[in-house]
Design a protein that fits this description.
Layout (H helix, E strand, L loop, with lengths): L3 E4 L3 H13 L3 E7 L6 H5 L2 E6 L10 H11 L3 E3 L9 H9 L3 E2 L4 H8 L1 H10 L14 H11 L3 E5 L9 E3 L5 H16 L4 E5 L5 E9 L5 E13 L2 E7 L6 H17 L4 E10 L2 E8 L7 H7 L3 H9 L16 E8 L1 E2 L5 E2 L2 E2 L1 E4 L6 E5 L6 E2 L6 E9 L2 H14 L1 E3 L5 H8 L2 H4 L7 H9 L1
Parallel strand pairs: 1-2, 1-4, 2-3, 4-5
Antiparallel strand pairs: 6-7, 6-8, 9-10, 9-12, 10-11, 11-14, 12-13, 14-21, 15-16, 17-20, 18-22, 19-21
Helix pairs in contact: 4-5, 12-13
């Protein structure tokens, strides 16, 4: 087992990793930018080092700075969390060359998973259906040929990216070239690669993902699926597990397909296989080779700690259990509380946090790095807390979430709390009648 882990992240996920490591008896090293001096994760870790100015490019994304701290602190492993360097194959390559364990997939797996076109080819070869689409589009001539085959509406996507960057829905030919060029610019800026591809846009589809866990010895299990259809600008806002839309046979088929994709990739550690579900059909879209923001849903239903699983597996331990040993119990819901103003197109909100009340109680979990007086800056992701609840039934979980959100009260910044409460209380959510365009339609009605 590792002796010391460097946590290459910030915020609530850094806190989670530090706590999980300490539960395993492992020392931790925090890194922080000047803007995060005094942040909660720096106080919880055994050691903390400043690695640069507020800008992520000069701090959390600066591989040389991260590796320098790893060397100085004598860390023998690095956990990247999510975001920042978590899915950067070059960072994994540097860790492997430096003989420092990367707590996540191997370099080759990360490289294949990060190339979304290649990942689709691997899924298709494994017998898993994929959304009809094109190959790499490097020119407007390539685009026109692909559109003739696929038609409208369609979705432009960045081959090297994720998180909604480089994505555009195109309804007809009049907006095609403008959105193609804009998506190329965004992909180039975000990932250093302007390559795009297109997929048929599936109206009314749901976004459902499967949590996989795999060791180095070919053992792979799934921890069930998560419904992630409620999104704004391709960023998830509310998730739940299990999905209220899947029949038992479809759930089994979806989870088995996820395991097949993972096996085809020779996947190791934890990851998420993502699908679109349209009617009675499902289609592979991508694999996220990291821990997900919404991973607590699976933890609540399984009763295990996914961060600790990551650490164990990266240290070379076998999985130690089979699919039959996984018991998925009850229903879990997560709401992301972001420092954003939904009335202003989710514009980031900055300020100093004053905590008035926070939720708690049986089956209620709050993952956060909040503290009274915390400055919310414009430099990083807007997530400030995750409220997670678990109930024996979906109805019970919904009622718990309503109560938990009412008890979440902070001042100093605008948040998505009220919007989450409105959605959770709505007749559509209660009935499980949501898709990836649900939030867009709801906000349009409120205008």
């Amino acid at each position: 087992m590792f002796q010391k882990i460097l946590v290459a992240n910030r915020g609530e996920i850094a806190v989670r990793i530090i706590e999980a490591a300490h539960e395993l008896g492992i020392s931790t090293v925090a890194i922080f930018s000047e803007a995060d001096r005094g942040a909660l994760h720096t106080r919880l870790a055994d050691e903390a080092y400043c690695i640069g100015p507020a800008s992520p490019q000069q701090s959390y994304l600066k591989i040389a700075a991260v590796m320098s701290v790893a060397e100085v602190s004598r860390a023998d492993a690095i956990h990247p969390g999510y975001g920042f360097l978590a899915e950067d194959p070059h960072f994994v390559e540097v860790c492997e060359a430096s003989k420092i364990a990367f707590i996540g997939p191997r370099y080759e797996t990360m490289r294949k998973a990060g190339d979304k076109l290649r990942a689709k080819e691997i899924a298709r070869a494994a017998g898993v259906p994929v959304v009809p689409g094109s190959g790499a589009l490097r020119s407007e001539a390539d685009l026109q040929k692909a559109v003739e085959q696929i038609g409208f509406p369609l979705l432009l996507k960045a081959s090297a990216g994720g998180g909604g960057r480089g994505m555009r829905i195109v309804s007809d030919a009049s907006e095609l070239l403008e959105k193609f060029r804009a998506a190329q610019r965004e992909a180039e800026a975000a990932f250093g690669d302007p390559t795009l591809y297109i997929e048929r846009y599936l109206s009314g589809a749901r976004h459902v993902e499967v949590q996989i866990v795999a060791d180095q010895y070919g053992n792979i299990v799934h921890w069930g699926e998560r419904e992630c259809s409620i999104q704004r600008r391709y960023q998830k806002l509310i998730e739940e597990s299990p999905s209220p839309a899947l029949s038992a046979p479809m759930r089994q088929a979806l989870c088995e397909a996820a395991v097949r994709v993972a096996r085809a990739l020779e996947y190791h550690n934890v990851g998420t296989v993502e699908f679109l579900v349209a009617g009675d059909e499902f289609y592979f879209i991508e694999i996220n080779a990291r821990i997900q923001v919404e991973h607590p849903l699976s933890e609540m239903r399984v009763g295990k700690n996914l961060i600790k699983e990551q650490i164990r597996l990266a240290a070379g331990e076998p999985l130690g259990y089979s699919q039959d040993d996984i018991q998925l119990g009850g229903h879990a819901i997560e709401c992301r509380i972001n420092a954003e103003d939904p009335t202003k197109n989710f514009a980031p909100s900055t300020g100093v946090v004053k905590i008035k009340a926070l939720p708690g109680g049986q089956g209620v979990r709050l993952d956060t790095a909040l503290y009274d007086g915390l400055p919310i800056t414009p430099y990083y992701d807007s997530l400030v807390a995750k409220v997670i609840v678990h109930g024996q039934t979906r109805h019970e979980a919904i009622l718990k979430m309503i109560n938990a959100l009412k008890r979440f009260e902070i001042e100093g910044v605008q948040t998505t709390r009220d919007l989450c409460l409105e959605i959770i209380s709505s007749a559509e959510f209660m009935a499980g009648e949501v898709d990836t365009q649900f939030l867009e339609r709801k906000l349009a009605k409120n205008l």
